[in-house]
Amino acid sequence: MTGSPDIPAAVRHRLVSQDRAAAAWLDGLPSRIGAVLERWDLRVAGPPSFGGTSVVLPVRSGGTGSAALKLVSPLGDAVQEARALEVLAGHGTVRRERHSPEDQALLLELLPGPTLADLADEREAVAAAGAVAARIAAVPAPPDAPQLAASAPAWREAFARQHRRAIREGRALPADVVQAADATIGDLAGAAAPGMTHGDLSFANVLRRDDGAWVAIDPLYRSGPAEHEAHTVLRSVTRPPLSEGLSRARGMRRMRELLGIFCEAASLDPQRAWRISQARFAASAFWEAEHGGDAADIAWLREMAAEIEL
């Protein structure tokens, strides 16, 4: 059985719109999957799922039992993901079983779920995300792991370009919001961290193992302060209204409460987590506006960025 998945039109459009090279990758996917299945003695055990940059198939084999076969598109980097998973070795993340660099393929432990996005109690979800962030941060980063601090100057330059474009297009953020974000990004340049960090700790990227433990998928190979993850966690929660009066005050109070829960679970500095989040909210508002993002989402990001102080 080849197990070649039918690619939904929406998935194809999303991948190709981001990188035209994805079209050739999608066309060659059936043969690539067939080759990996044969080489690793696997058979498909269920329908595929589609991530932001990949296709994942549940598989079985005599040697590994149940597992997940992940094929990474040109939008992702299976080599860097494999390296991250090797270093983290299951500490807060899914376990890696095999890797084929030439096929951009990974064989991973199968996680039955649910994800943190499926939990009814967002406080529980945020606390679980914090615990995962702490486990990842406890793993010492190898010398070759890219430091978030090293990318801060490039981020600062990109943010300045975004701001100039926003001014030209009449959607600039207030000056104090931009200045606060710029200062935080500049400070990150001197914030080398000894441990690993995930890089995209959304609720959808944290799943439950059979033993009940929560672990993350799709880690980046990166070292940096775990406070950097707070922005992604906050973007995962149900968004309270921030537009007016009392509802806005209540909404911000709730976001601060959730940030506190995350930081307590991960043993992080809430002030630092908020400063980095504020900068990332501002940058995200610019990025979404430049790429045709949802108007309500952009408005929410701008409101969050406007909260300079915790």
UniProtKB/TrEMBL annotation:
GO terms for molecular function: kinase activity; phosphotransferase activity, alcohol group as acceptor. The keyword DNA-binding does not apply. Keywords: Kinase, Transferase. GO terms for biological process: secondary metabolic process. It holds the Pfam family APH_6_hur. The keyword 4Fe-4S does not apply. SUPFAM superfamilies: Protein kinase-like (PK-like). This is Kinase. It comes from Brachybacterium phenoliresistens. The lineage of its organism: Bacteria, Bacillati, Actinomycetota, Actinomycetes, Micrococcales.
